[in-house]
Amino acid sequence: MSRNVSINRWNIASRVLAALVGGYAVAYAVTAFLAVYLPLARPDRVVFSSLASFAVWTAVAIYVFAARSATRLWLPIIGVTAVLCLAAFLSGDWRVRP
Amino acid sequence: MLLLAFALAYLGMVLLCLTMNRHRGVLLRADARLPGATILRLLAAGCFGIALWQGIASQGGEIGTVVWFGLVMLSALLLVLLLAWRAHWVLPAVPVLALGGLLQGVS
Amino acid sequence: MKLRQSMAGLHTWGGLLPSWLLFVIIFAGTVACFDKELTRWMRPALHDGVVSSLGADDVRGWLQQNVSEELHAFWMHGPTEREPYWRLGWEVDATKTIHNVAFDPRSAQAEPMAETVGGEFFFKLHYNLHAGDIGMYIVGLAGMFMLVALVSGVIIHRRIFKDFFTLRPKANGQRAWLDAHNLFGVVGFPFHLVLAYTGVAIFVASYMPAAAQVSYSGNVMQYFGEVMGSFEREEVGQPPPAPVSLDALIVESQRQWGGGEAGWVSVHHPDDASAVVDVRRRDRSRIGSPQDTLSYDAGTGELLNRQDASTGYRAYLWLAGLHMAQFGGTLVRLLYLLMGLAGCAMLVGGLQVWLAKREQRGDASVVWVRALNASVFAGLPLASLALLWGNRLIPAGFAERAVAEGWVFAGAWLLVALWSVLRRQQGRRLLREQLLLGAVLALGLPIINALTSDGHLIASLGRGDWVLASVDLFLMVAGLVCAASAWRLNTTPAAAAARGRAARIQEA
Fold first, then answer.
1. What are the residue ranges spanned by the domains of chain B?
2. Nearest C-alpha in C relative to B79
3. Cβ contact, residue pair A50, C210, below 8 Å
């Protein structure tokens, strides 16, 4: 019984952390990615991708609590964050094109 | 202040409300005859549409739409509050609001 | 099924924990819909509705005579229909402190009015809780919680359309409160969603710096300059020539725009030869006014730059404008006020559902939650009323008058919180007494206003000054509603409980 409670507690802590930190990380990565790859002028890329970030964060928070496994949900979060951040920050001079 | 648009939005909400048996029994006698639910919904949509047109005509496209959203939400709130506490005021409120709107339009 | 359960957990706790904070934010924002009207009420010098005849150069002259430090920038705004007086603000070089002064419109010379926090107090409480940058981040996080709670609330609601018109005040506690929570949440959903999203979007540059970091390599000045299309030039370290007339620049700007009004006029590093005057256009006919600022050389009056904002920035301005409701006049502000009250009602209803559920289980710890409810839901409106009392009773010449008003607000709130905690076991009696206090405070304000200024209700109604009169009238209505609720709570114990709570949030 007490084992179940502590598992449950970890489960919730993991999800809360994923929603707050993971959600922000994914939103950050998506924003950075869109700010580089949207086919728009630089100021517009930056503003539109930033404005969309809150929708991404909200969606991740919902996903985190809807996911079946409290541990495996981290996989897509870390994966998406890593891939998009790398794609954004390693795009060389292209990311600062006007 | 667009009272007529508010009256129309309220009328639209009343029509939608009448399509539901739960509320219809409260508002009308059992033997009252009404058109079918689809027609009521179409009429309601028409009311909302005219209200939107009025909002846009008086405030312009952008602001008129925002005002319309506000009026529709508030008309629903008014209707539900009346339904809960003063159900017999729900139907008389339609002509009262419409009359007020017309007077406002004339003056 | 599983999805609904997990979403229900998310909605319950993700909504409950920030709900007191969200109440503060939403209530303050609701009051801030009429912040400028409240400011007029709080400044007796504005009561007779005189419009200032000063010019921008008079205001600058006052600044030059009274402030000797080197300035980083100063900015001023001329009289408008809602604010018929000149406002001036400045920032001393190498400090981050900002000073503000408002000038008496009745005086032919620039003469500051008595200090007050004004209606802006609620605006600031709304966006940063008077806690600077940290407060701004806290409010942003609360906004994100609200977005998540709204979305998860839609997912768990089984019958959004079937129960759309349903409110059963006579049902058992939990059912009735759930109906109320659903009603204000579902009917107001478009408003709550849009306001939560546009609210967090206003400080997007602080909350989500990712895009600027990657696309501008973190160069914030370049980022803002390019996005807003604004103009900036470096200081040259030489004394400035004699400045050109600001009033002339305003007239010139109006000519450039082909009519239209000037809004903020700002001068950057005025004590340097590189000083720049920005004249911003004021346009209330659109949701997101385009802000085509004109920049002039402060010495020669030469036009240096015409702001050409990017499409993205225009979209941002539109969203921010939708949140701030500075368009569409009193009608739009009234709609926002009522929908804001609906948001407050939604929060109170949701908390009552949570409480009713736990009370049925005989959970003893709910008294503490009730105490917290009473300290916030009653405490904030009561403290707001106390602030207005402080505004009227603190003498005009009092040093640091605005700070004193802030302390009246904070002190009153602390007292109500303490009172709520001490009386936590007698919830009904506490509520009734708080309603009575609210009635006394609200009904007393028009009287004290009449005693301490010339702008009393009969005078303002006699002049047809509905803006000023409506503040007094609103306070009277709120006071009467509180009194009636308290009275009902006394006479019909069971049925009146619902009414009292709903009315309580309408105080102030």
1. 3-24+36-106
2. C165
3. yes
